[in-house]
Amino acid sequence: MRKLLDNLYAAAAGLAGLCMIGILAMVLLTIVSRFVGFSAPGADSYAGYAMAGAGFMALAHTLKRGEHIRVTLFISMLSGRTQKIVEVLALLIATVLAGFLAYYSVHLVYQSWEIEDVSMGIDATPLWIPQLLMALGTVVFFIAFCDELVIELLGRRQAPAMEDAHHE
């Protein structure tokens, strides 16, 4: 199960990387189109979709690497049972919030597909297509928080080092 979850987070990070390459491609296309004298309608929109996709797809991987902003300095001042309770409560709240975010992101995609919503640009892209990356990213993010919560409850979660707290 651990390998499956780690592969899921790595795959999401890989998709985030592909989105970054997509942003680069759209920017380069726009620059080249100006020099050559042709129009690249929708390139700005697609770069924006790729940017949103990169951000959402990177959420879980960033969480699992301990790179999200945390209040480690506060939590590290606590000890024993109090520290464990605060960690579990923080992870529980974050898991619930991530669950709501995932649910409503998936609901937005479904709603956009159902009403055949399209972008307002000249490209008229069906909005459910770029919204898929947001929904997928938030679902993987929710899974990552569930993973962190279970690991904490089992007592297998590594506490961030004190040096890390000074960088936050």
Q: In words, what does this structure look like?
A:
This protein is mostly helical. The protein has one domain (2-167). Helix content is 76%, strand content 0%. It is built from seven helices and no strands. It has helices at residues 2-36, 43-57, 59-64, 72-76, 80-114, 128-153, 162-167. Helix 1 runs antiparallel to helix 6 (128-153), helix 2 (43-57) packs parallel to helix 6 and helix 5 (80-114) runs antiparallel to helix 6. The chain starts with a helix and ends with a helix. Residues 162-168 have low confidence and may be disordered.
Number of strands: 0
Stretches where pLDDT is under 50 for at least 5 consecutive residues are 162-168
Mean pLDDT: 89
Strand content: under 5%
Q: What summary fits the major beta sheet? A: none
Give the distance, in angstroms, between the N- and C-terminal Cα atoms: 31 Å
Helix fraction by DSSP (H/I, runs of at least 4) = over 70%
Number of domains: 1
The helix/strand order is HHHHHHH
Per DSSP, the total helix count is 7
